[in-house]
Amino acid sequence: MDWKETPEAHVFKADLPALKKEEMNVEVEDDRILQIRGEKNVEKEDKNDKWHRVESSSGYTISF
After folding, report:
1. E-strand spans in the chain?
2. 3: which DSSP letter?
3. How many domains in the chain?
4. Which of 43, 45, 35, 40 is nearest to 16 (CA)?
5. Exposure pattern of 35-62 as b/e (b: 16+ CB <10 Å)?
6. Does 25 reside within a domain?
7. The pLDDT value given to residue 19
8. Burial of 4 (0-12, 13-18, 19+ CB in 10 A)
9. Which residues are in the SHSP domain (predicted)?
């Protein structure tokens, strides 16, 4: 998440792999908390696969 402040606004930029704009929900709570939420589909797992590292999760929630 990148966050910069300009004289006109605060600008937030988030990289959320595998999420489309329509799969995300952006809200402001209590006029001060920015919530960005999204959920992507989890790939079907083969029980014979052996994972060594997983960097992506099945959902995202970012709060500021």
Report:
1. 2-5, 10-13, 24-29, 33-39, 59-63
2. E
3. 1
4. 40
5. ebbbebeeeeeeeeeeeeeeeeeeebee
6. yes
7. 79
8. exposed
9. 1-64
- Asked whether residue 37 is assigned to any structural domain, the reply reads yes
Task: Give the length of the chain.
Answer: 64
Question: pTM for the full model?
Answer: 0.54
Q: Which domain holds residue 29?
A: 18-41+57-64
Contact assessment for residue 4 and residue 11, using Cβ atoms and an 8 Å cutoff: yes
For residue 11, is it within any domain?
Answer: no
Identify the CA nearest to 59 among candidates 19, 28, 10, 2.
19
Per-residue pLDDT of 13-59, as tens digits, reads 888 777 788 888 889 999 888 888 887 666 666 778 887 766 665 55
